[in-house]
Amino acid sequence: MDHAEEKKILLITHGPMDEYFHGTLAEDIQKIYGFTIHFEERHLDLNAYYDPVRRQYNGNSIISYLHETTSATYMKTLGLFNVDLFIPILTYIFGQAIFKGNVGIVSTYRLRNEQYGLKQDTKLLFERLRKVIIHELGHSFGLVHCYDPSCVMRSSTYVEDIDQKDFGMCISCRDLIVKIINNLQTSTF
Amino acid sequence: MDKKISLLIVDDEESVRDSLYNWFIEDGYDVDCAKNAKEALSMLEARDFDIILADIKMPGMDGMEMHKRIKSLNKDSIVIIMTAFASVETAVQALKEGAYDYITKPFDPDDLSHLLRNAVSQISLRTENEALKDRITTLENIDDIIGSSEAMLRVLKEVESVAPSNSSVIITGESGTGKEIIARAIHANSPRKYFPMVSVHCGALSENLLESELFGHEKGAFTGAMYNRKGRFEMADGGTIFLDEIGTISPKMQIELLRVLETKTFVRVGGNKEIESDFRIICATNKDLKKLVAEGKFREDLYYRLNVVNIRIPPLRERLEDIPLLVDHFINKFCTSMSRNIISIKDVTLKRLKDYNYPGNVRELENMIERAIVVGNGKEILPRDLPLDKKTTDTSYESLEDLEKKYIANVLDKYEWNISKSARVLKVDRVTLYNKIRKYGLTSPGKS
Q: Which pLDDT score, from 0 to 100, does residue A188 have?
């Protein structure tokens, strides 16, 4: 899939990211969604989103902020954070995107091995992060959770679940995303 | 599951509603939200939801009161109560009053998924259970046997009267007349209907295979018997066993069968333990069993044990007036299964169908209609869609005697074996008719 140049996916990072990660993720996104990705580094003050009772950051409020402040020129915008995110109903989230919306968030906090008393593993962290980003983008395009154990759209509640799935989609999710993006192309471009 | 599970979220906090909405939409549910109990109840009056996820504390009406009202609207809805840690006791009270489960906020993502998975599997089980019950009460209901002809109504009357008893039944009729359907109708209208009906097509199995099929076998009883296996008599415990093509079983099997019918016990092949089974037996045949008895090919004692009640299903050519009903039924059946619009049939086509003699009976008509729908124009069935030309001439090869026998049987059936009336119609005297009945071995249905 290859789409018009003017529509890109924006990934906002809060702090510098590894060049290797940039390149690999850009390849994934291009391959799966057919869009190029633009990286932007921002330093957002997250204090306003901190919930002292839960000692976590409110993901819904951050999504609202991104929604209000992001340029409509981007197809999708995804905020990448390193703090522990929650939404009111859940104890934690790895990521969250507005279903069929334009904005999503992802956190590395619970993807790190150190969080579970294990040795730091940057490569594994990047692999998990890539999967969560591809997964949340899938929701933003309208894909629901998949029951195929290896499909990236399978729901994951633990990091082990993320490790078990692939970076790619199963045949049915792939067919569906191609249809969705073709429809978007027809209606948008 | 084909149909999406519908889910209603009831919570006064917008952020909770939005988060849950997004979470469940991503899981593929059909989700709707209500901000209070009043709104939820009016939504529930308009449509059903499979699962309702309701907060226990809401202004106006709390989750407990709403739960009671939901149950009065739709007792099948699954209600899950959401609660803050402080109100667990109230949630437990809700469980006692019939709520499916409760979950404390905020939820662990895994707990929420697990809870919903369980609720969905309960819904699947319930749907499956209802489908099975429907199948018992509708598909095999006596009312669903197609036919309004006098001959068929008589069969149905016999089914109705014999079903509640425990008597053995022999169903006779040509191939394709629907003997198994009648057997199923008897079973479905009997007190044994919630137990299995087990069918065995005796003609399709060799003597050894039939023995193992009917009585089961022990591991190592013969080459290839790698496991113990229950036989059909064992499987039919509490229900009905239907033995089709009973006229084909070997003399050895006839003895075995007689013994099982007399004792209701049997031993698995290669085993030594007597197994008891409480079953009712229904047999079917397209052969003349009485003739086989006379020829020494079928045991007389077995014949009398099986033939407590005899139901003869008339061939289709003897109930041509049922053809329009049957055609309508098959058109509906096949158009629905092929996801097509219901098509019509031209009068001239129906006439052609009524002129045919149907050696393959209802099964042949069914296949003809299916073929006509497949090859036809999608709007109506035309004569050219029917493969009739060659077969309609089949009767010209029957002997005069055969034709006479069939005709006399037809008239006798029509006048319910009233000899005087039948003789008048046939324009022969009563003695001649009695002689013909004897000559052709005709028997009145119900008499052995």
A: 56
Within 10 Å of residue B317's Cβ, how many Cβ atoms? 17
Q: In chain B, what are the domains?
A: 6-129 (3.40.50.2300), 150-312 (3.40.50.300), 317-392 (1.10.8.60), 400-440 (1.10.10)
Length of chain A equals: 189
**pLDDT of B391 above 60:** no
Which positions in chain A touch B19 (Cβ < 8 Å)?
60, 87-90
Amino acid making up residue B231: G
Which residues, listed in sequence order, are joined to residue B33 by a DSSP beta bridge? B9
Across the interface, whether the CB atoms of B113 and A157 are under 8 A apart is answered yes
Segment A39-63 mean pLDDT: 90
Interval B118-130: pLDDT, tens: 898 888 888 777 6
- CB B356, CB B388: distance < 8 Å: yes
Residue B55 has phi, psi (to 5 degrees) of -75, 145
Closest approach of B105 to chain A, Cα-based (Å): 6
Alpha-helix runs per DSSP H in chain A? 19-33, 59-69, 122-141, 159-164, 171-188
Q: Give the phi and the psi of residue B61 in degrees, each rounded to 5.
A: -125, 130
Instruction: Say how far apart CA B325 and CA B337 lie, in whole Å.
Output: 18
For residue A4, the model assigns a pLDDT of 45
Looking at CA atoms only, how far is residue A92 from chain B in angstroms? 7
Tokens 């068929």 — which residue? B152
Residue B246 confidence class, pLDDT cut points 50, 70, 90: very high
* Model pTM score: 0.51
Phi, psi of B216 (to 5 degrees): 80, 175
ipTM: 0.73
Chain B hits for A92, Cβ within 8 Å: 109
Place of tokens 């079973």: B187
Contacts of A62 in chain B (CB under 8 A): none
Number of other CB atoms surrounding residue B366 within 10 Å: 19
Q: How confident is the model at residue A126 (pLDDT cuts 50, 70, 90)?
A: very high
The residue to which tokens 């209070």 are assigned: B36
Handedness of CA A147, A152, A153, A159 (dihedral sign): positive
